[in-house]
Amino acid sequence: xxxxxxxxxxxxxxxxxxxxxxxxxxxxxxxxxxxxxxxxxxxxxxxxxxxxxxxxxxxxxxxxxxxxxxxxxxxxxxxxxxxxxxxxxxxxxxxxxxxxxxxxxxxxxxxxxxxxxxxxxxxxxxxxxxxxxxxxxxxxxxxxxxxxxxxxxxxxxxxxxxxxxxxxxxxxxxxxxxxxxxxxxxxxxxxxxxxxxxxxxxxxxxxxxxxxxxxxxxxxxxxxxxxxxxxxxxxxxxxxxxxxxxxxxx
Amino acid sequence: xxxxxxxxxxxxxxxxxxxxxxxxxxxxxxxxxxxxxxxxxxxxxxxxxxxxxxxxxxxxxxxxxxxxxxxxxxxxxxxxxxxxxxxxxxxxxxxxxxxxxxxxxxxxxxxxxxxxxxxxxxxxxxxxxxxxxxxxxxxxxxxxxxxxxxxxxxxxxxxxxxxxxxxxxxxxxxxxxxxxxxxxxxxxxxxxxxxxxxxxxxxxxxxxxxxxxxxxxxxxxxxxxxxxxxxxxx
Lengths: 250, 234
Hints:
The complex is a heterodimer of chains A (250) and B (234).
Chain A: H1 2-16, H2 19-41, H3 46-79, H4 82-87, H5 93-126, H6 131-158, H7 161-176, H8 178-187, H9 192-203, H10 207-210, H11 223-246
Helix pairs in contact in A: 1-5, 2-3, 2-5, 3-5, 3-6, 3-7, 5-6, 5-11, 6-7, 6-11, 8-9
Chain B: H1 2-10, H2 12-41, H3 51-58, H4 62-79, H5 83-100, H6 105-117, H7 124-137, H8 142-155, H9 159-173, H10 176-193, H11 196-210, H12 215-233
C-alpha cells in the first residue's frame, strides 16, 4: 500500500511539473476570469451564467489535461525507460498501475480544487456559492477519475499515444450519449446491432448520470447508488489494466 | 498461446473483473431507473430542437448552452432592428432555452414580457405560448402566473387587472422593465384622473427604479421623481 501511495505522490509531482499540464491549467484559470465578463451582458442572470459557463470550462479543460496525461503517461515512461527504474525496485506491475491511477486521480482533484476554488471565490462574491456547487465539483472529479482510468487502460492496450487519446475522447463523448444508445437499441429489436448497442450501454461509463452540473432536477437521484457504481467501474478498469499490463512485454 | 490462457484462468484478477462486470450488469436496471428520472425531468416536446441544441443536450451541456443562448437573447432585444426579425429570433431563442432547460423562469418572464408589452412588437399570441410553456413546467410559480395574467389583461386593455398582477410581480422580482411600466401607467392615470393615490404609487415605483443596477433605468427613475415632485408642489 505504501508503495502505491508513493508512486501516486510521485506521479502527481511529475504531472505538476509537466508544461502541457500547467499550460492548460493557466488557460483554464484565465477562462474562468473571462466568464466574469459575461455578467455584464447576462442582465438578470449574471450569477447563473458565470456558474454554468465556469463549471463547463472547469470540466472541459481538466478533461483535456487528463486525456493527455492518462493516454501518454505509461507510453512516455516506456520510451524514456524510466519505468524500468521503478519496476526493478521491488515494485510489481500491479502496484505500478495502481499507483499511476491514484496519482492521476490526485491530479484530477488538485485541478478541480484549483479551478473550482477560483470559480468558487467569484461565485461567493456574486452570491451564487452553495452546496450544489460543491457537489457539482465533486462529481466532475469522480467523472474524470473514471476517464483517467480508461485513458491508462487504452494507452496500455493500444501502445500509441494518438490511438489511446482518440479512444479516451470517444469514450468521453459516447459516455454522455448512453441514453441515446439505449433509445436506438430499443428501436432495433431482434437484430445483432441491438445486442451490440445493449452491451455498449452496459460497458460505457454513464457520464450522463454523473453529470451533476447539468441535472435539471437534482433531489430525486440516488447518489449512493451512483457512487457505488463509480467504485465498481474504476475497480473493474484498473484490474483489467493490470491483467493486460502483466502480460505486456516492456 | 495455451500457456497464456491457462495463466489467465489461474489469475485471480480475472475473477475480480468478471465479478465487477456482473455487478455492473445487475446495477444496470437500477441505474436505468435513475436515468428515467433525468429523462422525465427534461423537456418533453421537440420545439426548440435544432442540430445545435440536440448536440448540447446529448453532450451534457444543457446549462452552459442555456447560458449562451440567454446572452444571445439579451443582445437580440438590446440590439433591436427589424421588428419581424427580432420577434422571430426572440421566440426561437426562448424555445431553444425551454428545450434545454424548461425550469429557467427568467426566460419565460423576459421573453414573454418583451413580446407582449413592447409597443413595436405586441405579439400577445407568441407571449402567451411562452407563458403557457413556462406554467406547464413550473406550475407552482406565482410570479409566472401573475405575469401571464397581466399580459392577458394588457391584451384586453383591462388596466386594473393588469396593474394588480404586475404590482405583485414587481414586489416579488423588482424587475426593471415591469417596474418602469407600472410606474408609467400610474403616472398616466394620475394625469388623467388627478387621483393623489395614483401619484403616490407612481412615485413609489419610480423610487424603486432609482435603486436599479441598470444606469438607464436609474436615470429614468431620478428624472421622473424630480418632475413628479414639482407637479405635486404645484
